[in-house]
Amino acid sequence: MRTRALRTGLEVTELGLGLAQFGNLYRETTDAEAAGAVDSAWAAGIRYFDTAPHYGLGLSERRAGALLGGRARGEFVLSTKVGRLLISQPDGADRQDDEGFVVPATFRRQWDFSRDGVLRSIEESLTRTGLDHIDIAYLHDPDDFRDQATTEALPALAELRDQGVIGAIGAGMNQSAMLAHFIRHADVDVVMLAGRYTLLDHEATTELLPLALERGVGIVVAGVYNSGLLAQERPAADGKYNYDTAPPEIVQRARRIAEICAGHGVTLPEAAIAYPLRHPAVVSVVVGSRTAAQTESNVDRYRATVPDALWEELRAEALLPPEPSRNPSPTIPAPTQETP
After folding, report:
1. Which domains, and CATH codes, for the chain?
2. b/e map of 319-331 (b: 16 or more CB within 10 Å)?
3. Which band of pLDDT confidence, cut at 50, 70 and 90, is reported for residue 49?
């Protein structure tokens, strides 16, 4: 499994394992299934794992710690997130979480991007995982908290990075504009972009990706299947796209991409994983998995050979933007100190 380095020197594998499903996303994941997914990932060489307190009200972090804690700490990278504190809610034990996770609602989420909230969140994540440090900490969906995230949350994470509690800092979002703002105005090392740099969504190519390359900030790409539409060789008419039923025109476009892929001996999911990794700013693609079989499938897709001619044909039909320029030695200017 190849690795790519952040500007801090921290290395992540090109394929990472997303652990949202370890928090019982949409349905229960058994302890045995979670263990199988991690064991399979480890055997394939995956050493980057991503979790968050939000996933299953802490269940994903606890499982991550239990399954990774027995392995040599220097051999894997774990990222988690801040911004949603978990507040005890004992009276919720008899009802289910209402944000998509099949767990008792014994905690409630509370948005908090204050300095104290960030410090508390990291401390609680360390407790849940049982680890002595977090490799990467992201702000989690700070869409409605841009200014506080810039002036309080990121500086707090930077303090913890300076103390060695965190290895690298950034933000994870489903949009690219605010991630570009953080790169301009804060000292971030890496950002996680979900669903906005895929075969079907090129939002990030205009501003975020060129800026990240210029500043030496790594991009971790998540959501490469766009909620599932790109996860099948033949996109279904009722397939999901961006958490909803895909519009007919998007399905038609996905099917045309799939046809071109097939003509080059490549499946649509294989191309979906390979495409972001072609950009020089991208350091990893994180794909979720619930079982060993799903992990193995994603690894096989990552390892598939994808010819350059495929990308050339997709660009010729205007299904992809122009190939990005490659800068082997990005400059890393200091972030600006303007008012956010």
Report:
1. 9-316 (3.20.20.100)
2. bbeeeeeeeeeee
3. very high
Tens of pLDDT, residues 132-183: 999 999 999 999 999 999 999 999 999 999 999 999 999 999 999 999 999 9
C-beta separation of 51 from 80 below 8 A? yes
Answering whether pTM is above 0.90, one says yes
Distance from C-alpha of 206 to C-alpha of 86, rounded to nearest angstrom:
36
CA distance 226 to 209: 18
Q: How far apart are CA 255 and CA 321, in angstroms?
A: 18
What is the spatial distance between Cα 157 and Cα 167, in angstroms, rounded to a whole number?
10
- Give the three-class secondary structure for 291: coil
Contacts of 120 (CB under 8 A, 6+ apart): 85, 112
The residue length of the chain stands at 340
Closest CA to 7 of 200, 191, 234, 265: 191
Separation between Cα atoms, residue 219 and residue 182, nearest integer Å: 13
- Cα–Cα distances (Å) from 114 to 145, 150, 151, 280, in that order, read 10, 10, 9, 33
Q: Report, as residue numbers or ranges, the catalytic residues.
A: 55
Residue 124: enclosing H or E segment and its boundaries? helix 115-129
- Apex 325 CA angle, 319 and 329, nearest 5: 150
Q: Which is more confident, 248 or 335?
A: 248
Cβ partners under 8 Å of residue 78, min gap 6: 49, 50, 51, 64, 68, 129, 131, 134, 135, 136
Largest Cα–Cα distance in the chain? Answer: 58
pLDDT score recorded for residue 17: 98
Q: State the amino acid at position 316 in one-letter form.
A: A
Which of the 8 DSSP states describes residue 319? Answer: S
Best CA proximity match to 320, nearest among 330, 306, 302: 306
